[in-house]
Specification:
Layout: H1 26-29, H2 44-48, E1 49-57, E2 61-68, E3 74-80, H3 87-103, E4 112-118, E5 121-126, E6 131-132, H4 144-163, E7 166-167, E8 176-179, E9 182-185, E10 192-193, H5 210-213, H6 220-237, H7 247-250, H8 262-271, H9 282-286, H10 289-299
Antiparallel strand pairs: 1-2, 2-3, 3-5, 4-5, 6-8, 7-10, 8-9
EC number: 2.7.10.2
Protein name: Wee1-like protein kinase
Family: Belongs to the protein kinase superfamily. Ser/Thr protein kinase family. GCN2 subfamily.
Amino acid sequence: MPPPCIKNPYLKDASEVDTDPFGNQRSKCAGFFPAIIGGDGLSRYHTDFHEIEQIGTGHFSRVFKVLKRIDGCLYAVKHSTRPLHQETERRKALMEVQALAALGSHENTVGYYSSWFENEQLYIQMELCDYSLSRKSSTQLFTEGEFLRAMHQMAKALQFIHEKGIVHLDVKPDNVYVKNGVYKLGDFGCATLLNKNLPVEEGDARYMPQEILNENYDHLDKVDIFSLGVTIYELIRGSPLPESGPQFLREGKLPLLAGYSLQFQNLLKVMVDHDPVRRPSAKELVENPIFDKASKNTKA
């Protein structure tokens, strides 16, 4: 029997697609699909891909640069570091895949290609990017214009996912990638629904606003805006945030940033406003005239 069909909660019409073609046989095969290796018993990962090198690691997963044997192209494959024995663990791991699949493609999000379970581990085939804006990057070399370009493209990514009713909840330098000069938002492991129909599990606490720490989930889209503002601030700062996060930013107190225009600093300040209602939406951020000015200066 093939694996059971899983309803994708991130699709806007998911409530209408409530039919399980396997009916009451779901429980009989629920534990079957995570252990799937392949029809002939071979590893799909090692059959389809040539592993080149490890390019990333997290608490629960590792990411590898791979060459797909059949098309000769390079990809990133992320897989869990430990077996997902429990049904609840597998369901939780699937949330990232379901969010990626429901979103579809956008220039400013990391592309999703395929996913599968193998030896009780989840594998996700994704677009390979050049690097991320982690603390390891030479971010101190960024100009205000480059920061604005990164911010604008991330705002476009957030507008795209928010309009699909999804929030990211883990925007930070490690999850902002660059490919051929284009900024892309990745790692949707904490993504949830804007309407709060799914559990909320926020990402890195250092980038979270006070309302999330207080378990107030009324403005989840504005959490992403705050996190983007803190991300840009950290890149300007050029050094890691304190482990407890920047409490002064949570209070809306942005330090004076020498060498940056007042307009730019005012935009950052409103993005990290302690009141989520006063933060701009992703759409309002995208349409801010500061980006038109930056674009003209770049062309000039």
